[in-house]
Amino acid sequence: MPPEPPKENLDHLAFLLQLCELELIDRERRAAQRRLKAAKFPNHKTLDTFDFTAQPSINRPLVAELARCEYIDLRENILLVGNSGTGKSHLATALGIAACGQGKRVRFWRVTELITTLMEAREERQLIRLRTQLAKQDLLILDELGYVPATKVGAELLFDVISTAYERTSVIITTNLPFENWTEVLGSERLTGATLDRITHRCHILETRGESYRLREAKRRRRGDRSQSKSDSQD
Ligand code: ADP
Ligand code: MG
Q1: pTM (two decimals)
Q2: By Cβ atoms counted within 10 A, which residue in 32, 35, 53, 148 is the most buried?
Q3: CA 87 to centroid of ligand 1, rounded, Å
């Protein structure tokens, strides 16, 4: 809501200043919204909704530090490794949203979606354009490396993105695969070695242990229901 225009002449400068401030705040808010939209997050998961007590293997102070985004200025990477459902995508998205809030350009990709888009761009002779777009980002999030093995061409295109990002753009990768199994996805040992070499040089590794959060929640609820019905039947 714009401020009321002043009644006195004297107040005009203060009024203008206030208008400028409001305009600046509004511009920054709209820019942040644009960055969030451009990042194409699959959902809006933030650190506020991440239950750190349920995931004690995650170093909370380290995550808080990463949310301040210094690693992006240092072109460092983050690798989130752990079983399915243990909060990797949640944390990757939350860190991406935090980065958007700090003026960083972020793009979230599911790895299979990125590979498909790269292959299509290659067929349509649009690969250079896509690569330029990717190179403009401050942070690339590559979610779910390892669920589907890539074809030879797909793995090479993915490797190309990772090596172009090397020391220029930070990358967050989430994966359910331990390092020794990456060859299964990327095909050749040479490519896997080179990919790991680039990612793990200057990298924060976060391991999410334990079983799926949702599964655990469901079991807890069921246990809750059972003890509830037991106490009901005792009534
Ligand atoms: P992953 O990517 O490791 O397979 P997700 O991050 O997609 O797992 O988590 C699965 C679901 O469980 C998501 O809805 C996520 O928000 C939720 N979740 C997982 N871990 C936590 C946690 N520690 N606190 C709150 N929600 C969590
Ligand atoms: Mg995931």
Answers
A1: 0.89
A2: 35
A3: 3
